[in-house]
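User: Please predict the structure of the protein below. I'd like the answer in structure-token form so I can feed it into my own downstream comparison script.

Assistant: Understood. Taking the following sequence of 597 residues as input:
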Amino acid sequence: MKYVVVSGGVVSGLGKGVTASSIGLILKSCGFRVTAIKIDPYLNIDAGTMSPIEHGEVYVLDDGGEVDLDLGNYERFMDIKLTRENNITTGKVYKHVLEKERRGDYLGKTVQVVPHITDAIQEWIERAAKIPVDGQSGPADVCVIELGGTIGDIESMPFIEALGQFSYRVGSENFCLIHVSLVPVLNVVGEQKTKPTQHSVKDLRGLGLSPNILACRSTKPLEDNVKAKLSQFCQVPMENIVTLYDCPNIWHIPLLLKEQKAHEAILHVLNLTGIAKEPALEEWSLMAKMSDKLHVPVRIAVVGKYTELLDSYLSIHKALLHASVARRKKLVIDWIPASDLEQGAKKENPDAYKAAWKLLKGADGILVPGGFGNRGVQGKILAAKHARENKVPYLGICLGMQLAVVEYARNVLGLADANSAELDPNTKNPCVIFMPEGSTTHMGGTMRLGSRRTYFQSKDSKSAKLYGNRSFVDERHRHRYEVNPAMVPRFESSGLTFPGKDETGQRMEIVELPNHPFYVGAQFHPEYKSRPGKPSPLFLGLIGAASGELDNVLQQSCQESVGSRPHSNGKLERLYWKGAAKKPVSVVYSVCDRVCS
């Protein structure tokens, strides 16, 4: 096993996660099987109980792991499926060691940070690195490890010590350290300053780790004299110093690394030069360039609770982007704080109220994402009501689905006090109820989590067609409450349908309004499985409906791609099975079309 470790210095937020994801993508394009590990030095067991406003979204894996959002970047870039073991936290490591101590596994020895904690970290890395994540059997060839935080943080010290020991144990030919650092440009003189990176590398070397490669964040490419200075003072060869300068979108980062031959430097350190292929990133490059050139806008209003930090909805944003690029539309997102749509805001902050409603009414489509708690709920219900009454395409996810049901009960069924039991335990008409296996006393890891199967009840629904008329689909969940099955017959008799249910038929997974252009809610989180070039079907449906192209999307979704081949005119010919007779249909695409079809 080869290991590539990505650390960060000077300041946080430099893009270590995107850098690690890009490195994994390049190595995969060189023909290697890759996996990834994120080390988070906080004391939480996992990200499940952390506020999205403080830490960004909680990303959910197939096995139900609630993890850091960077694992979402790994999955999207490398097209892999990680496990909860691929996210190491201080809380997990200390819990593991203390449980061993309580069992007496240390045979009376004094349990210390070194060697017991550092050994546990190294064992965890080796164990997680061997877990197959790409659908094949056996371990990957290369494991990319991102060390969260910044060099010098107190909480990172055990992990840095463990990685120093680990590099010695596995050998220099199996360990490559890439240090992401900042090279600021002072506006006063316009000069790139190397001192912050020099000090960061000095601190790193003082802790027992020497970087093989420097990845320098800056507003523009590094000048040769700046590279020479960094090489001299950081003791890193000039050819191993790359610039990650500002780009129109993060899909350009792997291309930047390839252009600067970062993959050659990594392969040289890991002694893989002789067996690596030339990176095949042609389709990725076309996708990145196309995204920059899109000009026909599609405007989506995202009505949420945590809009002050956009990382709170990172996977939502990415899924919308994947779908809009697939439909060749320039995505414009209006982030609307749900509470600004409520009557209270009209009195307390009339300007915010008017601005929020202006954005909502000007949107081509509306998305209400998941969330917890009462704040902003009435605003989300008003957004669902506006979408239903004005035939605006709507996608509700998790709580967004539940509140669409509540809104329908109140304004169509006439149940004025209809509500979710989460929001009003005393409601006489609970449209959404607590799940029996949930916990009201413990929050961490007690929800319905991970990949669960949804069975389509009919092939006539839009959602079934978007998923290619499959009989079932596996999507990821994160919720404690669900639609009350006792009220389902009343909803269905009044026109609201539930075309997706679980295996028992008692859990409502998808809700639709058939007489609406696109009014869909999902109890699951489809955004977690969206990938560049392979957008989530429900997001594709929202973007298609918002741009007036839903019929085309539904038609294409019902065609199953069976492969592609070069065409004589230099374009790409893609083959589909179409219709009950399963006759192959040939469709010729332009070069740009092929990454979006």
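That's the full token string. The chain has two domains: 2-288, 294-560.
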